């Protein structure tokens, strides 16, 4: 695609959306125009399905930021259950990222292939350690050849303080209730109900352990019908790669652990180095879904699409903890960046995540009308129960920590852990934000605004919303008028 056609595509897309070419506007500068339609209530809007790649769908257009105060396995599990996606951040060492991915893959999983096991000769202390490491409340005991010896659950050792005890003395020994690989889901449910068991080990015809069916997993599948699951029924999860490390090895290991989407995330993805990395990853891992960011111009979209990116992440400095725009003078208003990048992404058949600056349902709605396929959220999720880090009280309020990935505080921690050599110009802030309860309620609030906005526009799904949604520039007087005054 020639520069000239980029300019033409950009101009016609902005015009279609009711946006000017100059000046570059952002969320608060515009309002979405209402349409007459036959949608009588927002409860008519049930479908918020979107996609991040040709063959990768989400049930809500929301992903959580790959930041150390936002997404680890717990947040990723919560997001996938609700229909979105969490990206495990790149600041964990690779081994820990793999473990986090595996934790998501094991959660809510009715059928666990290759369950975590421990040798029947181990001590109770070692058993507890492994269970803690994998966040599981029971574990199967096997021998070197994968023959089942027994099972131990946390209930079995509640009152046992002596960690040097052989686990065999505490476990429930064989014969356990087991089933062959050929058992159907319904038969497994009946068997578990009949014997009042939580876990059903699945064995092959030689008697070797191959899988585990979990009652909790079956119930979770029923509890979260909007969850996004992979082909094996496991929750989906994204994982970030480190550009400065051996990203090929990281990609290989994270995919093997079950990551559904890889994210190559750097402050400036429009560099030849990132282009090379994208090509290398997509040549070796053809089927891997790769999101690349961040960028804010259509030329960068073309550059990354040609390199092989499935999805681009748009946003240079609009985030709540960002200082990039202030420090460098670079970074375009986010609504303009989304619209101009999407104009090219849609032409080239790739997808777009709008990253940063989502403060409420209005920003989410405007990002989607501008053409983003999903938004990435940091600060709104950092205050929730599911984000990493402690909740603390100061005065009458509960708080959590939130920090930019390029903040001084984060860089100093990375130097301590050996993942960074020297402090670079800090382009992020760190601070505290109010505790916000469960991420479920934050997402429901955002989606309430979105569904209402879709009903005003007259759209039953996000494709219709994008096609029918148009903006009108508003003045400062208009902005003031739109604010509550009581
Ligand atoms: P929100 O507004 O949701 O934005 O908190 C989250 C996004 O902010 C970006 N981010 C940074 N940008 N300096 C920056 O300029 C930083 O230190 C920084 N840390 C995070 C990132 O894209 C994230 O998803």
Task: Describe this entry's structure for a reader.
The N and C termini lie far apart (52 Å). The protein has an 8-stranded parallel barrel, surrounded by 7 helices. With 486 residues, it is of the alpha/beta class. Helix content is 37%, strand content 20%. The chain binds xanthosine-5'-monophosphate. The site of xanthosine-5'-monophosphate has 25 residues, from strand 19.
Structure, briefly:
By secondary structure, the protein is an alpha/beta fold. It contains 17 helices and 23 strands. The chain has an eight-stranded parallel barrel with strand order 4-5-14-15-16-17-18-19, surrounded by seven helices. A four-stranded mixed beta sheet has the order 6-13-12-11. A four-stranded mixed beta sheet has the order 7-8-9-10.
Task: Provide tags for this entry.
486 residues, alpha/beta, eight-stranded parallel β-barrel, four-stranded mixed beta sheet, 17 helices, 20% strand, globular, binds xanthosine-5'-monophosphate
Shape: globular
Helix content: 25-40%
Ends distance: 52 Å
Strand order of the largest sheet: 4-5-14-15-16-17-18-19
Bound molecules: xanthosine-5'-monophosphate
Structural class: alpha/beta
Beta-strand percentage range: 15-25%
Would you report the number of β strands? 23
Number of helices: 17
Output mean pLDDT. 95
Low-pLDDT residue spans: none
Sheet bearing the most strands, described? 8 strands, parallel, barrel
The Cα radius of gyration reads: 25 Å
């Amino acid at each position: 695609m020639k520069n000239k056609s980029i300019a033409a595509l950009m101009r016609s897309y902005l015009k279609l959306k009711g946006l000017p070419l100059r000046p570059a506007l952002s969320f608060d500068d515009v309002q979405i125009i209402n349409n007459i339609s036959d949608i009588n209530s927002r409860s008519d809007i049930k479908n918020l399905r979107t996609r991040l790649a040709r063959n990768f769908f989400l049930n809500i257009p929301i992903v959580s930021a790959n930041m150390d105060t936002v997404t680890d396995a717990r947040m990723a599990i919560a997001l996938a259950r609700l229909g979105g996606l969490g990206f495990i951040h790149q600041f964990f060492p690779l081994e820990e990222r793999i473990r986090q991915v595996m934790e998501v893959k094991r959660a809510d999983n009715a059928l666990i292939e290759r369950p975590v096991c421990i040798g029947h000769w181990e001590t109770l202390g070692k058993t507890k350690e492994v269970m803690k490491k994998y966040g599981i409340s029971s574990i199967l005991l096997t021998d070197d050849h994968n023959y089942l010896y027994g099972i131990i659950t946390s209930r079995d050792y509640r009152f046992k303080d002596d960690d040097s005890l052989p686990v065999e003395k505490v476990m429930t020994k064989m014969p356990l209730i087991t089933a062959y690989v050929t058992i159907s889901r319904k038969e497994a449910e009946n068997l578990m109900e009949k014997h009042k068991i939580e876990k059903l080990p699945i064995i092959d015809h030689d008697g070797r352990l191959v899988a585990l069916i979990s009652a909790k997993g079956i119930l979770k599948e029923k509890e979260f019908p909007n969850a996004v699951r992979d082909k094996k029924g496991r929750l989906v999860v994204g994982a970030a790669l480190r550009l400065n490390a051996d990203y090929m090895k990281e990609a290989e290991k994270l995919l093997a652990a079950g990551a559904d989407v890889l994210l190559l995330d750097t402050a400036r993805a429009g560099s030849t180095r990132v282009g090379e990395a994208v090509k290398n990853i997509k040549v070796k891992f053809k089927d891997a879904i790769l999101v690349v960011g961040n960028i804010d111009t259509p030329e960068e979209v073309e550059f990354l699409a040609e390199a092989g990116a499935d999805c681009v992440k748009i946003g240079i400095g609009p985030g709540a903890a960002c200082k990039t725009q202030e420090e460098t003078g670079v970074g375009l208003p986010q609504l303009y960046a989304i619209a101009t990048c999407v104009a090219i992404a849609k032409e080239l058949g790739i997808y777009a995540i709008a990253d940063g600056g989502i403060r409420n349902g209005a920003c989410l709605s405007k990002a989607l009308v501008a053409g983003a396929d999903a938004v990435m959220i940091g600060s709104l999720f950092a205050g929730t129960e599911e984000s990493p880090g402690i909740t603390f009280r100061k005065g009458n309020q509960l708080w959590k920590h939130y920090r930019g990935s390029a903040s001084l505080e984060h860089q100093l921690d990375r130097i301590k852990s050996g993942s960074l050599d020297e402090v670079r110009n800090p382009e992020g802030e760190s601070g505290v934000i109010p505790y916000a309860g469960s991420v479920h309620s934050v997402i429901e609030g955002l989606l309430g605004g979105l569904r209402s906005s879709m009903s005003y526009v007259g759209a039953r799904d996000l494709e219709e919303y994008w096609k029918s949604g148009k903006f009108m520039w508003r003045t400062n007087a208009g902005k003031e008028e739109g604010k509550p005054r009581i």
